[in-house]
């Protein structure tokens, strides 16, 4: 295990819940900062397009698809200082160090707007895409708005962190904007992760999770999401580079060429995730 310089913030009870259930909600972690995050990403959205990050289609060209008007932003930390700052924020990095048992490396950032009328995301496992070795990834999912079953909040499958990464099947495009879906195994159940703005949900890369459609009349469900591995990682999927240490310095790892549980049949759709 590498030397640990971060951590020491979670209780034994919190650590136990994460390792047993696969997830942990830290309430109010960014309660003071969440308005800054929201304002900055709404400013970015108003730009319309940022190459390599997102492209918003005007309403008259979107054909009724609200997610074309509010697409998710991919890797905003590569083009925006606020995204980079919060991806490596000490509040998150110290918690991740406790969860990993070693210092974390930041691999990815995303921002979801999830406006009213948006589809949900089918159940999936993040490690299917990130392919972290050894070990797995951990997500830090910051609720920028209150998130619940009505406005498209997350759902998780407790204890699925102890399952293998599964080969998904095709999801129903009428309810999910992504193409892959994982079944909930017998004996497990889906539960909503109800959150307030500023709460942060941490979950293991094998945890089966997804999101509800936004059925509210006027409530966005914005979220800032980052993925991490730990400092002992040697390989990761080729779409996640460079990774960043706590101090902002970067490191490039070996590409993980393992095709995973699906062989090569899902390669095209996985690349688009």
UniProtKB/TrEMBL annotation:
What's the protein called, per UniProt? Phytanoyl-CoA dioxygenase
Keyword check for Oxidoreductase:
yes
Any transmembrane segments, and where? none
Molecular function per GO: 2-oxoglutarate-dependent dioxygenase activity; iron ion binding
Q: Name one Pfam family in it.
A: PhyH
| Keywords attached to this entry | Dioxygenase, Oxidoreductase
Coiled-coil annotated residue ranges, if any:
none
InterPro entries in the record: Phytyl_CoA_dOase-like (IPR008775)
């Amino acid at each position: 295990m590498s030397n640990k310089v971060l951590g020491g913030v979670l209780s034994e009870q919190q650590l136990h819940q994460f390792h047993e259930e696969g997830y942990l909600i830290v309430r109010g972690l960014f309660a003071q900062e969440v308005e800054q995050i929201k304002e900055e990403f709404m400013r970015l959205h108003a730009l319309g397009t940022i190459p390599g990050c997102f492209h918003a289609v005007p309403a008259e060209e979107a054909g009724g698809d609200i997610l074309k008007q509010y697409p998710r932003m991919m890797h905003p930390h590569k083009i925006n200082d606020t995204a980079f700052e919060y991806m490596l924020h000490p509040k998150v990095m110290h918690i991740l160090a406790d969860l990993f048992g070693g210092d974390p490396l930041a691999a990815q950032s995303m921002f979801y707007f999830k406006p009213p009328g948006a589809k949900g995301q089918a159940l999936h496992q993040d490690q299917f895409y990130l392919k972290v070795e050894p070990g797995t990834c951990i997500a830090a999912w910051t609720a920028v708005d209150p998130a619940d079953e009505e406005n498209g909040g997350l759902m998780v499958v407790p204890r699925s962190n102890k399952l293998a990464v599964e080969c998904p099947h095709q999801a129903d495009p009428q309810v999910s904007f992504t193409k892959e879906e994982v079944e909930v195994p017998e004996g497990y159940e889906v539960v909503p992760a109800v959150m307030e703005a500023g709460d942060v949900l941490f979950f293991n890369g094998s945890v089966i999770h997804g999101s509800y459609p936004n059925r509210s009349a006027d409530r966005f469900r914005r979220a800032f999401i980052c993925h991490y591995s730990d400092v002992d990682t040697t390989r990761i999927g080729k779409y996640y580079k460079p990774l960043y240490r706590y101090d902002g310095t970067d490191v490039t790892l070996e590409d993980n060429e393992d095709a995973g549980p699906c062989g090569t049949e899902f390669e095209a759709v996985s690349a688009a995730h």
